[in-house]
Every structure is written in structure tokens, then in C-alpha cells.
Amino acid sequence: MKILWKLKKGFVKEIIAEMNEPRPPYTSVSTIVRKLQERGLIGYDAFGKTHRYYPILTEEEYTSQSFSKLFKEYFKGSYKNMVSHFITNHDANIEELEDILEEMKKNQQK
Predict the structure, then answer these.
(1) I want to staple 28 with a disulfide (CB 3.0 to 4.6 A). Which of 24, 57, 100, 103 is the partner?
(2) What pLDDT was estimated at residue 88?
(3) Measured over all CA atoms, what is the biggest interatomic distance in the chain, rounded to whole angstroms?
(4) Distance, CA of 56 to CA of 34 (rounded, Å)
(5) Are residues 36 and 1 in contact, defined by beta-carbon separation less than 8 angstroms?
(6) Please, which residues bridge with residue 47 across strands?
(7) What are phi and psi of 48, to 5 degrees?
(8) How far is CA 42 from CA 4, 25, 35, 37, in A?
(9) CA 29, chain centre distance (Å)
(10) Cβ–Cβ < 8 Å for 24, 45
(11) Residue 51 pairs with which residues in a beta bridge?
(12) Residue 52: which residues within 8 A CB-CB, separation 6 or more?
């Protein structure tokens, strides 16, 4: 997706050209692109047997949808579960989290 956002539109060969070495086989990238298209994340323009792909969602829309799904499925829609996870598993700084909450409270009051 990041490559298509950068290119705006691209054929599989152009997508592969943007990848780091060692580049995956054409068939692997083609399969991934088709799956993204089936999920409604990218569209295509047909040119005979070949397709030029383009993103349907912006990076912001994709990030928002992905996070919402993660939040609902992994954290069961609970902010408490999410914050607890980061504190327990990622050494999140509690004071920093408190500062963030205070800042958010101030912004909501405006």
C-alpha cells in the first residue's frame, strides 16, 4: 500500500521496482495486489491482460480503519485494555500517559 500511495498508480513491475532488494517474485507481488483489490483497498484500470493499480483509500483512511479493527478485535474495544497492554508489555511511561490525558482534557474544555 505504501508503494501505491507513493506512485499514485502502478503496474506490478513498477511496484516491484520500488521494493528493496532482494525483491520478491512477480507472482508473489501479483497475488498480494489481487488480494488487496479483492478486499476493496485498491482498484485497477485494465489494459488488455495487464492492470494498473491505484489505492482507493488514503493512507489516513487505511490507518484509521486498521486501528479501529485492531482496537475492537485485540483490545475488545476497551481503552483500559489498550493502555494496560502498553504499560505492561512496552514499558510505557505512566507519567507521560498522565500528561497526555491532561493535555487532552484541556483541549476538550476549549
Answers:
(1) 24
(2) 84
(3) 59
(4) 14
(5) yes
(6) 50
(7) 65, -125
(8) 9, 20, 9, 5
(9) 17
(10) no
(11) 46
(12) 9, 10, 11, 44, 45
Length of the chain in terms of residues written = 110
Residue type, 47: F
31 half-sphere exposure, CB direction, 13 A CA radius: 5
In three-state form (DSSP H/G/I as H, E/B as E, the rest C), the secondary structure along 18-79 is CCCCCCCCHHHHHHHHHHHHHCCCEEEEEECCEEEEEECCCHHHHHHHHHHHHHHHHCCCCH
Report the Cα 76 to chain-centroid distance in Å: 19
* Among 10, 18, 17, 14, residue whose Cα is nearest residue 45: 10
What are the tens digits of pLDDT across the range 52-96? 999 999 999 999 999 999 999 999 999 888 888 888 888 778 888
- Cα separation, 101 vs 11, whole angstroms: 45
Grid coordinates representing 54 are 491505484
Residue 43: strand pairing partners: 54
- Cβ distance 75 to 82 under 8 Å? yes
